[in-house]
Amino acid sequence: MVKVRKILFLILFSFFVGAYFTKSGYKNVTQIMPEVTRAPIQTQTSASEKIVFTKGGYKYELTPLYDYVISALIVSRMNYGWFSAVKVNKIFPVDLCLLWGSNVSSGLYRNKSINFSQDGRWYYVRWYGDIKFNFEEAANNHLIIKEKGLLRKVKNLSRGDQVKIKGMLVNVRAANLGESDILNPESLTWNSSTTRSDSGAGACEIIYVRDVEVLKKANPLSHYLYTLSYYGLLILIAWSIIDFFAKPI
Predict the structure, then answer these.
(1) CA-CA distances (angstroms) from residue 140 to 122, 198, 199, 225?
(2) Distance CA 93, CA 142 (A)
(3) Cα-to-chain-centroid distance, residue 1
């Protein structure tokens, strides 16, 4: 029985490692949904009242600017909510670097010479050679998420997923309800970009998320194998522990 468990462990662990490194491979994405080739839709909002709520030790006041719908390909994602001492990360847990339009329809993102990354609420794109990257069809998006269901959905997104996000572009004011420090100042002000042609500081869209739809999941087989092997390893470890303590001393 021990030998069987060892063989199962090696098989499941191999699937787990292989799936982990392939499930978020956006360069493997070849089938592009039509919505992703179109520009984001930004329209005048009918929301006139500010959105006020308290979460994570801050009182937030969101000023609606525009209704906003973006369909795009995720080429990078950053979760700032993991083990963070910064309180506002509870309401801004995830940033998504999104591409659309010609950056996607041309297959440019699949070029081996181009890569995307995120850090410190910025996104970075690097390449070498002759690449015609359109900065007006790419953006880093700060997502404000209040609902737990939406948060779970967003946290399950991976690079390579094609998504449609509906919400509002907002300006944010936040007041600290507790003690302030270097990571958590007395007040914060974040203003959203309202154009795709800007760059640098202040060029990110701040989206108060109302809905998230996965238009097409990337690498579904890798995701399936990852989930299967993950839970298989947990069951195998539990089985081994139970078997160990069940043996007579």
Answers:
(1) 7, 12, 10, 30
(2) 8
(3) 42
Supply the DSSP symbol for 230: H
pLDDT tens for each residue of 160-190: 999 999 999 999 999 999 888 988 999 999 9
Cα 208 to chain centroid distance, Å, stands at 14
Q: Which residue has the tokens 């390893």?
A: 233
Name the token pair of 85. Answer: 């001492």
Residue-range definition of the domain harbouring residue 66? 26-218
Q: Model's pTM, two decimal places?
A: 0.82
The tokens 């041309």 sit on which residue?
Answer: 106
| CATH code assigned at 55 | 2.40.50.140
Rounded to whole angstroms, how far apart are CA atoms 167 and 155? Answer: 17
Tell me whether residue 248 is in a domain: no
The sign one gets for the Cα dihedral 44, 50, 56, 58 is: positive
Residue 95: what residue type? Answer: D
